[in-house]
């Protein structure tokens, strides 16, 4: 998307606004499937939590993806978008047995990561196919909040508890059709990922009726020009060879599954904001924008560094600015960042705003959540309206005092 198109979108739909480029999503999907073209059966399940707009889900369906869901609401969104139940895997954490049973009744693939729930579900529904999420005790991820495979993680069943799993399976006669792991997000070292995969292969040998092995995701995407990223092509070459080798020894052609979220949508998204004021203090020049961490929490929560460009003055002299929001507490997007000269009224864009931006947004400070726009075949389509005051109070009930 070029500057002019983005500026036109900001003018037409107002700011702040999330903008997604469908062509970039398609490019990333094809890049992943191409990297694993030597695998006979590949399944890419898009992680809905990254960006759950129903129009984006429909685009994923059109591309040929399945869905990875973590809540019954995401399952329902997937079904509404047109996915068949068998195209959806349900991988919750810490939910009730009742929620898992609702998902099973809808016909989606169940993925369980708790021994107690596994035993209860297997006892009640021994014929329902179940995938088991394993914790490989391999630390991966760019931040402790997104590293989920380490020994203290709440996710998955420890590899040291495999005997317990086998006992439950034997006692309940349940049907285990998949093995799954997820080590964390922003994986850089593919050797660490491959090491964790070997643990998963060893675990898979213990189960005789598998249909697929799910290797999770967490591939790192670049956040600026020249930034490091997961070498998906090298990973594809190495893991495909090892997977095909395993299938031969297993005696059955299995499906290799992934559940990418950020990898597919992060780079497709840009978040457009307007500069309300430029404020000079004794040591800092602040660019104060019409948004806050209620719309883009990742810099405050994860320390993520989104590239910021001045769309209104792309050739202006670079100066140092701290970009801050309008939330009534510390609300910083960037400190002393070199950006083309900023004036009040300028439109800035935050890159890599496709994943975990709108989906983690809120109404903090009673602010409205922005609109979402999908650029599909070079045409901008409004896919979510900007909220209004009526949206803020729609579920509130006023009582007489």
Automatic annotation (TrEMBL):
<feature type="binding site">
    <location>
        <position position="329"/>
    </location>
    <ligand>
        <name>substrate</name>
    </ligand>
</feature>
<dbReference type="InterPro" id="IPR009006">
    <property type="entry name" value="Ala_racemase/Decarboxylase_C"/>
</dbReference>
<feature type="domain" description="Orn/DAP/Arg decarboxylase 2 N-terminal">
    <location>
        <begin position="23"/>
        <end position="266"/>
    </location>
</feature>
<keyword id="KW-0028">Amino-acid biosynthesis</keyword>
<dbReference type="InterPro" id="IPR002986">
    <property type="entry name" value="DAP_deCOOHase_LysA"/>
</dbReference>
<dbReference type="InterPro" id="IPR000183">
    <property type="entry name" value="Orn/DAP/Arg_de-COase"/>
</dbReference>
<feature type="domain" description="Orn/DAP/Arg decarboxylase 2 C-terminal">
    <location>
        <begin position="18"/>
        <end position="354"/>
    </location>
</feature>
<feature type="binding site">
    <location>
        <position position="302"/>
    </location>
    <ligand>
        <name>substrate</name>
    </ligand>
</feature>
<keyword id="KW-0457">Lysine biosynthesis</keyword>
<feature type="binding site">
    <location>
        <position position="218"/>
    </location>
    <ligand>
        <name>pyridoxal 5'-phosphate</name>
    </ligand>
</feature>
<protein>
    <recommendedName>
        <fullName>Diaminopimelate decarboxylase</fullName>
        <ecNumber>4.1.1.20</ecNumber>
    </recommendedName>
</protein>
<dbReference type="InterPro" id="IPR022643">
    <property type="entry name" value="De-COase2_C"/>
</dbReference>
<dbReference type="InterPro" id="IPR022653">
    <property type="entry name" value="De-COase2_pyr-phos_BS"/>
</dbReference>
<comment type="subunit">
    <text>Homodimer.</text>
</comment>
<comment type="similarity">
    <text>Belongs to the Orn/Lys/Arg decarboxylase class-II family. LysA subfamily.</text>
</comment>
<keyword id="KW-0456">Lyase</keyword>
<feature type="binding site">
    <location>
        <position position="298"/>
    </location>
    <ligand>
        <name>substrate</name>
    </ligand>
</feature>
<dbReference type="Pfam" id="PF00278">
    <property type="entry name" value="Orn_DAP_Arg_deC"/>
</dbReference>
<dbReference type="InterPro" id="IPR022644">
    <property type="entry name" value="De-COase2_N"/>
</dbReference>
<dbReference type="InterPro" id="IPR029066">
    <property type="entry name" value="PLP-binding_barrel"/>
</dbReference>
<dbReference type="GO" id="GO:0008836">
    <property type="term" value="F:diaminopimelate decarboxylase activity"/>
</dbReference>
<feature type="binding site">
    <location>
        <position position="356"/>
    </location>
    <ligand>
        <name>substrate</name>
    </ligand>
</feature>
<comment type="function">
    <text>Specifically catalyzes the decarboxylation of meso-diaminopimelate (meso-DAP) to L-lysine.</text>
</comment>
<keyword id="KW-0210">Decarboxylase</keyword>
<keyword id="KW-0663">Pyridoxal phosphate</keyword>
<feature type="modified residue" description="N6-(pyridoxal phosphate)lysine">
    <location>
        <position position="49"/>
    </location>
</feature>
<comment type="pathway">
    <text>Amino-acid biosynthesis; L-lysine biosynthesis via DAP pathway; L-lysine from DL-2,6-diaminopimelate: step 1/1.</text>
</comment>
<dbReference type="Pfam" id="PF02784">
    <property type="entry name" value="Orn_Arg_deC_N"/>
</dbReference>
<feature type="binding site">
    <location>
        <position position="356"/>
    </location>
    <ligand>
        <name>pyridoxal 5'-phosphate</name>
    </ligand>
</feature>
């Amino acid at each position: 998307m070029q500057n002019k198109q983005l500026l036109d979108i900001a003018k037409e739909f107002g700011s702040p606004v999330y903008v997604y480029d469908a062509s970039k999503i398609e490019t990333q999907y094809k890049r992943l499937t191409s990297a694993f073209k030597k695998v006979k059966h590949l399944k890419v399940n898009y992680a809905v939590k990254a960006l759950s707009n129903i129009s984006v889900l429909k685009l994923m369906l059109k591309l040929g993806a399945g869905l990875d869901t973590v809540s019954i609401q995401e399952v329902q969104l997937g079904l509404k978008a047109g996915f068949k139940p068998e195209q959806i895997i349900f991988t919750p954490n810490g939910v009730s047995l009742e929620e898992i049973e609702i998902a099973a009744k809808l016909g989606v693939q169940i993925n369980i990561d708790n021994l107690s729930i596994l035993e209860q579900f297997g006892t009640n529904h021994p014929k329902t196919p179940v995938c088991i999420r394993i914790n490989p005790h391999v630390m991966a991820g760019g931040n402790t909040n997104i590293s989920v495979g380490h020994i203290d993680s709440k996710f998955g069943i420890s590899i040291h508890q495999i005997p317990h799993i086998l006992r439950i399976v034997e006692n309940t006669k349940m049907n285990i059709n998949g093995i799954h792991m997820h080590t964390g997000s922003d994986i850089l070292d593919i050797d660490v990922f491959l090491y964790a995969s070997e643990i998963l292969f060893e675990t898979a040998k213990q189960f005789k009726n598998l249909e697929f092995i799910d290797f999770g995701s967490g591939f790192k995407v670049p956040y600026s020009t020249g930034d490091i990223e997961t070498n998906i092509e090298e990973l594809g070459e190495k893991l495909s060879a090892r997977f095909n080798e395993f299938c031969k020894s297993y005696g059955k052609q299995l499906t290799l599954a992934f559940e990418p979220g950020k990898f597919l949508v992060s780079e497709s998204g840009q978040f457009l904001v307007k500069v309300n004021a430029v404020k000079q203090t004794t040591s800092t020049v602040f660019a104060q924008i019409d948004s806050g961490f209620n719309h883009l929490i990742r810099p405050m929560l994860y320390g993520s560094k989104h590239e910021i460009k001045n769309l209104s003055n792309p050739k202006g002299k670079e100066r140092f600015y701290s970009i801050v929001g309008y939330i009534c507490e510390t609300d910083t997007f960037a400190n002393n960042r070199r950006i083309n000269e900023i004036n009040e009224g300028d439109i800035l864009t935050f890159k890599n705003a496709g994943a975990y931006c709108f989906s983690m947004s809120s109404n903090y400070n009673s602010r409205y959540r922005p609109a979402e726009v999908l650029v599909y075949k070079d045409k901008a389509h409004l896919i979510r309206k900007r909220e209004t005051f009526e949206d803020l109070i729609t579920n509130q009930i006023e009582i007489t005092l």
